[in-house]
Give the backbone structure.
Amino acid sequence: MDKFFSQKYCDRCGQSLQAGRVMSMFNRDCLCLDCKEKEMKDKDYKLAQKAEREAIKKGDFNFPGIRK
Ligand SMILES: [Zn+2]
């Protein structure tokens, strides 16, 4: 998480993060906005969202996501 705010490039495509950065819903990747948009269209996105919500409800704020 600490490198999240300091890294300069997207973990997934290597693009510059100048336009913005978002945490992946599937794992701990730091994504550019393009990759986030692609991720939101993934058929498992809702599932990943649900899994994260459940984890937070249980007090697990370090939920690593459903994908590695
Ligand atoms: Zn990207």
